[in-house]
Amino acid sequence: MNATSGVRPVGALLLCRADPAAVRPPAQLLREELLLAPAGSEWSVIVPEGKPWLHGGEPVDRVVTGWATALAVSAATWPVLALWWDEDRAGFTLANGFRRTVGYTWLAAGTPVGEDEAMRTFAARLALDPVLDVQDLEPLTEPDADADAHSRLIGLTAVLARVGLDLPVGLTPGESADRLRSVALAQGAEELEWSGWREAVRAELAAVEEGRLGPYLRGPRARLLGAAQLGAGLPLLAWGLARRSGGWAAAGALLVAHGGLGLAYDRIRGT
């Protein structure tokens, strides 16, 4: 808690189970001010600048859920975990491809308000140990007078350390967006800048061709994936614009860009 104002900070972190090289192209398509850094073996962390919720009046959980969903659907092969917190609550949302997102929430004092099944689904989707890791996650769903919402998130990241997550020193859930960005920049985090559609498309194609999705750039699977991304992105973009929701509009735009790019690439390379 902020000692001077008594107001709890608002912030978020996006944890991607992939190397920064794979995360960079789709993250740039969000067209937001983001910082990217490695966060352990096959993990990356994205630190948002925070304007969509600080100045747009949109809840932080809604913004980062939209981003996480778009990144996970675009990637298709690696999940995205959004950690978020505000004055009243804290929680997480896990996005993994086209699957329905799963999340959990705690009140500021640490009171669990999520469903136990959500935590078990979370563990299964991240391939955590069904016995040892789940046993350590269970206390996060139980009342604890000594644990507030921020310590719950820290406990969650401690469990994820067993599958390679290693957040840079100082990137602690519960800090303000400004504090997180300062710490990330001091440790050499990469600033993701929007360089225009042409450069973004080139970077995206290079990353996909070199990655596990390379064999699926052409043919029926590529067309199916592109059509699915367009089908999900267009209504999401329209919904976000109609409600002036920056997070969901960005998610929709990213999906439309990915789907259109995939279909166009398949058509061009197939001729």
How many strands, which pairing sense, and closed or not: the largest β-sheet?
Answer: 7 strands, antiparallel
Number of helices: 10
Q: How do the SSEs run, as a string of H and E?
A: EHEEHHEEEHHHHEHHH
Number of DSSP strands?
A: 7
pLDDT average, as an integer? Answer: 81
What distance separates the N and C termini? 60 Å
CA radius of gyration is 18 Å
Gross morphology is globular
**Could you estimate the helical fraction of the residues in percent?**
40-55%
Task: Write up what this structure looks like.
The structure is a single chain. Strands 6-5-4-1-3-2-7 form a seven-stranded antiparallel β-sheet, sandwiched between helices. The chain starts with 10 loop residues before the first strand and ends with a helix. The chain has helices spanning 20-28, 51-54, 60-75, 116-125, 132-137, 149-160, 177-186, 197-210, 220-242, 246-270, and strands spanning 11-16, 34-38, 44-48, 80-85, 89-95, 102-107, 190-192. Mean pLDDT is 81; it is low at 1-5. By secondary structure, it is of the alpha+beta class. It folds into two domains: 11-191, no CATH class; 215-270, no CATH class. α3 runs parallel beside α10 (246-270). It is 48% helix and 14% strand.
